Amino acid sequence: xxxxxxxxxxxxxxxxxxxxxxxxxxxxxxxxxxxxxxxxxxxxxxxxxxxxxxxxxxxxxxxxxxxxxxxxxxxxxxxxxxxxxxxxxxxxxxxxxxxxxxxxxxxxxxxxxxxxxxxxxxxxxxxxxxxxxxxxxxxxxxxxxxxxxxxxxxxxxxxxxxxxxxxxxxxxxxxxxxxxxxxxxxxxxxxxxxxxxxxxxxxxxxxxxxxxxxxxxxxxxxxxxxxxxxxxxxxxxxxxxxxxxxxxxxxxxxxxxxxxxxxxxxxxxxxxxxxxxxxxxxxxxxx
Length: 287
Ligand SMILES: [Zn+2]
Ligand SMILES: [Zn+2]
Fold this sequence. Notes:
With about 290 residues, this protein is α/β, with parallel strands linked by helices. The protein has one domain: Metallo-beta-lactamase, Chain A (4-Layer Sandwich), CATH 3.60.15.10. The chain has helices at about 15-20, 45-50, 70-75, 75-85, 100, 115, 170-175, 200-210, 225, 230-240; strands spanning about 5, 25-30, 35-40, 60-65, 95, 120-125, 130-135, 135-140, 150-155, 160-165, 180-190, 200, 215-220, 245-250, 255, 260-265. The chain has an eight-stranded mixed beta sheet with strand order 6-5-4-3-2-1-15-16. One zinc ion binds near residues 145, 147 and 167.
């Protein structure tokens, strides 16, 4: 059974996103037996990164969009077109917060009615909900962010809980929800001494890691100030303060979740005319 997360992008925040200092393509989560593919937060760069690793979007069965900020959703329409074989095969599920699916207080909706209509199911979630994402139990947690609908996730695997916290301010209540996580994927937008509203910095990451005490913490969603302040050094600061193994994510890093947690790098391919076999024969599912 394969449980693997491929980090398509580890950048976040508006400046990293607009200049693509790091990609902001979210994560691909391969899970279960046979394998299912879930795409979490496909922001800018997702498609480019999937091309670099020759990942066929036609394998994706579900997409989850945590909130209505472009670093989390902008490549989603194309991801949905991939999931549905160019829009010809109705399959898969789209999950999103109410701001993503319906639009709330001027934020979103992030997908057109056309794209929302392509997948088999559309699910709008709220904190406290428990989803069955292609067989994987997924708990929806509360976040404190400038999109008030944002949430975080606890994904249950046979090898423990993998949590993706998504953009939030930190307090004890936020941290409490992630207790028992084996892996904590944490958006640490800014470095030590740079606390900003609605996001985490290295200092609050340390407090949260201290509270949750996972086996492994991975920093992602790094803003430009963070990137200029040695992300690996910031992660080391967290590891030193908490004793919890902490790494700064890198684009196309992989995490295999099994008896052991192992980090690696996705295979990349040179630029060529690669396209999956089904694509040129699209009428496969044409009605
Ligand atoms: Zn963000
Ligand atoms: Zn955000």
